[in-house]
Amino acid sequence: DTAVSQTPKYLVTQMGNDKSIKCEQNLGHDTMYWYKQDSKKFLKIMFSYNNKELIINETVPNRFSPKSPDKAHLNLHINSLELGDSAVYFCASSQAKETIFDEQYFGPGTRLTVT
Amino acid sequence: AQSVAQPEDQVNVAEGNPLTVKCTYSVSGNPYLFWYVQYPNRGLQFLLKYITGDNLVKGSYGFEAEFNKSQTSFHLKKPSALVSDSALYFCAVRDYDTGGFKTIFGAGTRLFVKA
Asked: Shortest CB distance from B103 goes to which of A4, A104, A108?
């Protein structure tokens, strides 16, 4: 009965490689997010999708490309990985795009290590 | 731009004592404020939120938060701390960006509860 799931949990890869992280939510929410948490635990939004449509795109290198095949899934593809991409990436969802006071539900995170 | 500040990197408290984790905010309109908790190697979990109304908000696991408009604060409190409350706590504010709402997180406060 996992609400927001991510795969893989851990990802170790070399510089220059391309990798993907998958996210699925079974809450029936309309909006999904990707966050990056750095080594100092600072959490910053990267992207937000509502019903498969990109609605927020923070200043993120275009090596990062989110894809939402349907409103329950939001995947993150990263090209040409760099050392600075090492972080924990969290997927999250919330109920509706138009509601400012919806709380978010987070996945367990994917720890990406680039060597 | 809206922002959130958590002035303490770490809070130490003895089990059974009351705890307070501080948060101040800066918003241009009405504040929509949240507290989340992150246990080691886990995603964030929603604790409570302030939208409007009563300044004292009750949430999960016995936590509550006091909204103070004049001091622009939203401190998290618990009357009697448990060792299991030890975790990383994030204060957050919802902000409207082009296309949708995003959540701006504080830097986090690590709570240590000693037995």
From this structure: A104
Burial class (CB in 10 A: 0-12, 13-18, 19+), A13: middle
Interface contact A93, partner B, CB < 8 A: no
Tell whether A55 lies on the interface with B, counting CB pairs under 8 A. Answer: yes
Q: What is the pLDDT of residues B31-44, one digit of tens each?
A: 889 999 999 989 99
| Separation CA B111–CA B28 (nearest Å) | 30
Domains and CATH numbers, chain B: 3-114 (2.60.40.10)
The reply to whether A67 touches chain B by the CB within 8 Å rule is no
**Do A21 and A6 contact (CB within 8 A), yes or no?**
yes
Domains and CATH numbers, chain A: 4-114 (2.60.40.10)
Task: Quote the Cα angle for A20-A111-A43, to 5°.
Answer: 100
Q: Does A40 touch chain B (CB under 8 A)?
A: yes
Tens digits of residue pLDDT in B6-56: 999 999 999 999 999 999 999 877 888 999 999 998 999 999 999 988 999
CB contact under 8 A, B44 and A100: no
- Rounded to the nearest angstrom, the minimum Cα separation between A58 and chain B is 10
Residue B24, classed as helix, strand or coil, is: strand
